[in-house]
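User: Predict the complex.
Assistant: Input components as received:
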Amino acid sequence: MTDAEVAACLERGRTGDEKAILELFHYMHPQVAKIVQSNLPPRESAEDLIQQVCVKVISHLDQFSGKVPFLHWVSRIAVNTCLNQIRHEKRRPEVRLADLSEDEATVVEHLAASPGELDASDHVAAKEIVDKLLGALKPADRLLMRLMYLEGRNVDEIAALTGWSPSLIKVRAFRARAQLRRRYRLLMKETA
Amino acid sequence: MNPLDDQLDRLFRAAGKVHPGAVPAPAYGLETRVLAAWRAANAGEVSGWDLALLVRGLIVASVIMVISLLPALKSSRTGETSEASTTPYADFAQLADSTVASNDAP
């Protein structure tokens, strides 16, 4: 969909055109699904959350000013909906060596022993370890670390997505990184 | 750089290379549910509009009622004392009242 097509669709959607609403739904669904899946709270159904975001977007089309691209606006709503969903999450398990699979433990040992990058075959195990380490952080910190280190977004992009100020992002990133380092150190101690 | 930071960076770089699975097509029924929720939200807006109209109607009706009652209130306040003299049959009414009163007396 081009920008002009999206704008036309939005206009028709605001006047109650169901066909336009469906076109917008299919246009935004991949983006919403991607965000929800990567920030999915534990024990939460992705489909329910995707539905919640999509309904929120199409019910508030009037509030879209058009100053940013439509998908940026959708992403922001998706990120904030996920964040609200996981905000009250209480359980943040510590990561212990015993929780790691054999492959994951090998990756941790490899990281400590060799300064080189991990092999492609270790990437999935690395992702599992990262998910476990992030799972021990507060939801907002987890989201930030994911956006910053896994998706490679910069401070401005994260600010646009979350609505946080750049200084808040920097402070939060610094603290979250320190938390991650502490938990990783504990893991390394167990390995040694 | 701190060796732990270096290891964490390498870990994140490796994890970031894992391709997220392909985004699946919308689940069966999701489109219908989203559309239904949108329709329900729109219906809610219509009933809100109806409510606003009803409230305005009530306000207008109250204003008309008050305006129509004002002259009656005014006349009842100022007219109680002068009613006897302004009513054409006031004298007959007074005469009838005193006759009834005198007939009833023992």
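Residues 30-79 of chain B form the longest helix (50 residues).
Let me know if you want any component modeled separately.
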